[in-house]
Amino acid sequence: MSSSEEKGPLPVTPEKEVPPPQFTHGGDAINQHRDQEDFWTRNGLNLKSFQRRGDGASMDSLDRTMKTRHLHMIAIGGSIGAGFFVGSGKALATGGPATLLIDFSIIGIMMFNTVYALGELAVMFPVSGGFYTYSTRFIDPSWGFAMGWNYVMQWSIVLPLELTVCGITIQYWTKDVNVAVWITVFMFAIIIVNVFGTLGYAEEEFWSSVLKLGATVVFMIIAVVLVCGGGPEGSAYDEYSGGKLWQDPGAFANGFRGFCSVFVTAAFSFSGTELVGLAAAEARNPVKSLPGAIKQVFWRITLFYILGLTFIGLLVRHDDDRLLGGDNPYINVDASPFVLVGLDANLRGYDSFMNVIILVSVLSIGVSSVYGGSRTLTALSQQGYAPKIFSYIDRSGRPLISVLFVCAFGPLAYVNLSTSGVVVFDWLLALSGLAALFTWGSICLAHIRFRKAWARQGHTLDEIPFKAAGGVYGSYLGLILVILVLIAQLFVAICPVGGGFNDVEGFFKSYLALPVVIVFWIGGFIWKRTGWLRTDQIDVDTGRRELPWDEINEYREKLAQMPAWKRVLHTVFV
């Protein structure tokens, strides 16, 4: 049955409910409109490009120049930055190598199922601008409001944090220049990339991901040699060590409290993995390019997080005093275990090489924060969840006012230069630390409710062109893991790693994201006066993408003829 066939009358919606986002597939028209513009306007390089686009300025007016190679590299290496390269030092010192591996693996399983669920929804419903629309459509419009603003807030706060890391990273080589100068330079660089809109973001993420991927592969090759005792004579790795550090000083640190506390670092490190679903809406042909990109997330989780951190646990002692700087990964990049390995191995220049990778990674997240925050804010505006001024899209396809809004948070990085800067940044970290977990949980819940409504209204799984690898059970697992991680962090917020009980300030620094989300949820309910959607109120037909079923069925027949092992390979990994 074609997905474009009529399924009967649409389900009845609640009396006061805002209609679900009206998704359309206007990629070809938008690309044609873009091609009609001259080179300078098309690429945002003249004053004319800043004028409002004359096609209604809907989310379908966004630029659609992203290619398959962009999506694949965004899925593999996009948004991997200080949380992974530097924050892993904090996680190792707090929980030990076994906790580091276990907690990151648990978050990896969560992300695997979350991104696949997102892929299934994104192929069916071409959402431009935000995952919150799935919450609005399949869960509760008020919760969608909360998730949209939570996502905007998350990326708006991440921008000044990453700018600060950029400035501090430069101090690894020279401290003669004030950090404020470097913050200004990198802020200007992020603005320049965003001048080129979607293509600027896509190309920057592609090449930075290539660099991060290459550096990680190089690190793992070096790590194998060092673990086997092939390091330079007189270095810490000139004899075979194997799993020695798992025995002395041990595999775990700080007991159950240490185990629970590493989850928030792991969650922050994985933040941005979901951006591949957001970026897909600005691809020329997401039906073809998105499924392949989603499957690259497995390699992202395995290569970067699992293998990379396994070697870190084999090479760096968790009681190394130098890791203590990782307590605030936005202040001391010298605490990166990737840098410490190079120093301990007496590999000249390797520490500087890894700091260059960290610098590029952090700058990449700064660009991603502007991209993710601005697209979501524009979508919120066009659905009536934010002031209409943020719906402005210019002739080169940039959500101009939303980009300026997110960039306006960048100067908060200068606050860190004052004596009270650390206090301010602690609270900014508190706001952003757990924010991603609510986004991921909402994606899983939206997928569960979509599948339930899909079946209730007489549809079959064969009508879904790209299905999540774990099906609805994978989304249940992802949602359960999100809830367990939130419970674990609640425990740490009450009972910190240092022992005893937290005071009120310490509690909210660890768990501020929850009350903020609740405030957003209440605000959304007051604004829209809508509540939880019943299954028969969920609309699964409006705006469903027209799909090339001949190609899809041909691929399915080809897949069915493959051996079982090859089917699994193509379904999950290729």
From TrEMBL:
Compartments, as annotated in UniProt: Membrane
Designated name of the protein: Amino-acid permease
Basic and acidic residues bias (residue ranges): 1-18
Membrane topology: Multi-pass membrane protein
Domain Amino acid permease/ SLC12A: 70-531
Keyword Cell wall biogenesis/degradation: no
Region (Disordered): 1-30
Database matches in Gene3D superfamilies: Amino acid/polyamine transporter I
Keywords, sorted A to Z: Amino-acid transport, Membrane, Transmembrane, Transmembrane helix, Transport
Keyword NAD recorded: no
Source organism (scientific name): Podospora comata
Main location: membrane
Record-annotated membrane-spanning stretches: 71-92, 104-127, 148-173, 179-201, 213-232, 252-276, 297-316, 353-373, 397-415, 427-450, 471-494, 506-527
One family name in Pfam for this protein: AA_permease
Entry superkingdom: Eukaryota
Cross-referenced InterPro entries: AA-permease/SLC12A_dom, Amino_acid_permease_CS, APC_YAT
